Amino acid sequence: MSLLKNSLVAFVLLGLLFVSGEAAAQREIYSDSIPFKDRLYFGGNLGLQFGTVTLVDVSPLVGVMITPRLSGGVGATFQYYDDSRFYGSEGSSYGGRVFGRFNVLPNVFLHAEYESINWEAYDYFVEDFRRVWSDAFFLGGGYFAPFGNRGGANFTFLYNVLHDNKTSYYAEPYVIRVGFVL
Q1: What are phi and psi of 95, to 5 degrees?
Q2: Is the Cβ–Cβ distance between 118 and 131 less than 8 Å?
Q3: Over pLDDT 90: what percentage of the chain?
Q4: E strand or H helix at 2, and its extent?
Q5: In 26-173, at which residue ranges do the beta strands (DSSP E only) sit?
Q6: What is the rounded CA–CA span in Å between residue 56 and residue 92?
Q7: Which domain of life is it from (predicted)?
Q8: Cβ(91)–Cβ(85) under 8 Å?
């Protein structure tokens, strides 16, 4: 009964995120109409998981509205992970990204992003872990669910066109992200 109740609550909350009117975070931007500081937005992802597999993910970002439909920005990523089931599965990764976003509709956007992550990859030749840089170029799109005057949640679906099973940081070329902006 409790599982059914929790599932129902989660379904209702998720549904409320998709019910939106006007995209409150999208403002009319003309050459000098809004100061630069008011066109900035901040956000990112925060992930926490504890137990047999521990993961802490902090990925802040800052962006700027260039036109009413185009924005761009930069972000950083830091992750700590520890999987107690396997030897050598504790470590950290860090890196940065540059992104661009174009609003096709008020709440629907296209997204392009270049990301570089430093992580501990297993080297089969020396049978040990070593730190490497892994690059990714993501293309995709998403949905912006506004709440409040400026904030909202981003649901982004991306495909890494540089994915390589042997060297990529991500296990699959598809990445789904949920993040927040203010």
Answers
A1: 175, -165
A2: yes
A3: 55
A4: helix 2-18
A5: 40-49, 53-65, 70-83, 90-105, 108-123, 128-146, 152-160
A6: 9
A7: Bacteria
A8: no
pLDDT at 111 over 80: yes
Give me the domain span that covers residue 74. Answer: 2-181
- Any idea what the CATH number is for the domain that residue 176 is in? 2.40.160.20
Counting beta carbons within 10 angstroms of the beta carbon of residue 28, is it exposed (0 to 12), middle (13 to 18) or buried (19 or more)? exposed
* 6-21 residues labelled b (16+ CB within 10 A) or e (exposed): eeeeeeeeeeeeeebe
Number of domains in the chain: 1
Cα angle 47, 39, 159; round to 5 = 45
